[in-house]
Design a protein that fits this description.
Blueprint lengths: L9 H35 L29 H5 L14 H21 L17 H6 L4 H25 L6 H17 L17 H29 L6 H18 L4 H15 L11 H15 L1 H6 L10 H28 L1
The structure holds zinc ion.
Length: about 350
């Protein structure tokens, strides 16, 4: 149904392909730089240090990092993971975080932005998709905002997860910023919750729609916080204070940014990932496997939102709310039983 213009010559096609590649690379660079900033945030916020005024410096010898070494990912590779001044081993986590954010930006660029929003529920995908219309002509302002809105959610989730890895509580400044940004942005652009079904062509009265979007965000945040609390109590290894706080924080933000109708779906996805891959997490981080699964679950939710909602019985905006609770109850029982079997098997060894 949606597609780019089809009757193009080879040269035109090559042009568009190279334009797409260059734009994707630009998004990759932006993502990598924001990933680099994320490393700074996660290191400095809990230490009460300033985020912008101080230049990047080596945590070991405190020498400022030279401009030529401060290029995300490549700087680390060029230095073979060591500080130029003191030879300190720069943890591989730094380039990995930069790569992760860059990958988030690029994957969402292809799946959500230049696809014309084919991953989104309710919202009609744009007929003329592709990089020329969506990025260079900014033909669909709601889509580009949805893209950055979702990037922000993924970015904040990753920040809370990394802080939990360092056994830090979610900093109040970060949570406040995430919540305020979400609510204000929703008030300005109510279509950021696509499940509300607000049409971008027919918005005679913006004010009720703004309130509907804010309410949807608050409701999502509350249900997310509730779900995070319940899961934190049910799953024993998340007991550590920082782990549970991270779980509640990430769940609340996910509910706020994606809406209340996604909370159960994200929970089911997170539990499924946790069940399949939870045992693969290194023992040092096993207490965080649910929070990690949750971050993966949020990614799947955004990338496959429309397809998930099309599955019969999948808890989504298309289902009555009673069905959500039924599905959740079944999932919780199944997960608990399987986990009990795994734990029993481990004890028996
Ligand atoms: Zn150093």
């Amino acid at each position: 149904m949606h597609s780019e213009v089809t009757d193009l010559s080879l040269i035109e096609r090559t042009n568009i392909a190279s334009m797409t590649a260059m734009t994707a690379f630009w998004f990759f660079c932006v993502g990598a730089s924001l990933g680099s900033f994320l490393n700074v945030v996660v290191y400095r916020l809990p230490r009460g240090m300033t985020l912008v005024r101080k230049k990047s410096s080596c945590p070991s010898c405190d020498q400022p990092i030279e401009m030529r070494d401060n290029i995300p990912i490549f700087g680390w590779l060029k230095l073979h993971g060591r500080c130029r001044n003191c030879g300190w081993h720069i943890p591989i986590r730094y380039p990995l975080v930069e790569l992760a954010v860059a990958a988030q930006f690029v994957i969402l660029f292809f799946v959500e932005l230049i696809s014309g929003g084919t991953n989104l529920p309710v919202r009609q995908p744009d007929f003329y998709a592709g990089v020329v219309w969506t990025v260079w002509y900014l033909k669909y302002p709601d889509l580009i905002q949805l893209y950055f809105f979702h990037c922000l959610l993924l970015y904040l989730s990753l920040a809370l997860l990394l802080l939990a890895v360092d056994r830090q509580f979610p900093p109040r400044r970060l949570i406040t910023l995430g919540v305020l940004a979400g609510l204000v942005w929703l008030a300005i652009e109510p279509q950021l919750h696509p499940t509300l079904g607000l049409s971008r062509w027919n918005m005679p009265q913006r004010s009720p729609q703004r309130w509907a979007a804010i309410w949807s965000g608050l409701l999502g945040m509350a249900s997310g916080a509730g779900m995070g609390t319940v899961l934190g109590m049910v799953i024993p290894e998340t007991k550590a204070g920082t782990t549970q706080s991270a779980l509640i924080g990430i769940f609340s933000l996910s509910g706020l940014y994606l809406g209340p109708s996604t909370v159960i779906s994200v929970t089911v996805l997170a539990l499924m990932v946790h069940l399949c891959a939870g045992a693969m997490v290194a023992p040092r981080l096993s207490h965080l496997s649910l929070a990690m699964s949750l971050v993966v679950g949020i990614h799947i939710q955004i990338l496959a939102w429309r397809h998930l909602a099309a599955i019969p019985f999948w808890p989504s905006h298309a289902q009555p709310w009673q069905r959500h609770t039924e599905i959740l109850a079944v999932v919780v029982v199944v997960v608990t039983l399987i986990r009990q079997r795994i734990l029993d098997a481990r004890l028996a060894k």
